[in-house]
Amino acid sequence: MKILGIIPARGGSKGIPRKNIVVVGGKPLIQYSIDLGLEAMREGLIDRCIISTDDEEIARIARNLGGDVPFMRPAEISNDTAKSVDFMLHALSFLEQLGEHYDAVLLLQPTSPLRTIEDVRSIIQSFKEGSSESLISVYKEDHVHALVSYHIQGGIGIPLDENHNVGGRRQEHQSIYVRNGAFYLTSSDYLTREQKVFSSRPILYVMSKSRSVNLDGPEDLDLLNKILS
After folding, report:
1. Which of 118, 127, 169, 179 has the highest CB neighbour count under 10 A?
2. pLDDT of 146
3. At 227, is the secondary structure helix, strand, or coil?
């Protein structure tokens, strides 16, 4: 099975300006994903790992860090409304024109820098041995479920479950698993056929909640700096 790793690094970012190259734990955020991709290639876990970016500065920094930037991402799939599957399909199509064909795509978002090579080994093995066309990483959440969750309308809480106020022990409710954005691994056939990043019944790879920080806003940046320092 040939696997292509893709590190998405769009130039635009609203929550944290220039998020993909902001310094976290003493180095550019994107470096964590580049280093992991290079290590995965050295171990033969994936066959190639590229950076998909529309930004010349990010491309230059990525190349200086040893990253593979074979093209610049077109503007029409780099705006706020573009979907992840768009740049994944673009990368597959570009490389196919060069004679490179891949059976699956591993998405390594820079915003999840707490992944390890052990994680990559595990997800590749699970994907190869599994019967689903995709795998996603999650964390286990024991304390959040419908009975303690609400929508809000005009300052009033609208319960997700009508039994929210009848009592009950937390231990009686089933745990849920929440996507953490660290890994998406999907067959190329599924991506092309369904134009979705992952299937309706994906394999779940469970990570600890403490390693599931996904950089989105300033609070996440502070937390990651503390962890990585």
Report:
1. 127
2. 75
3. helix
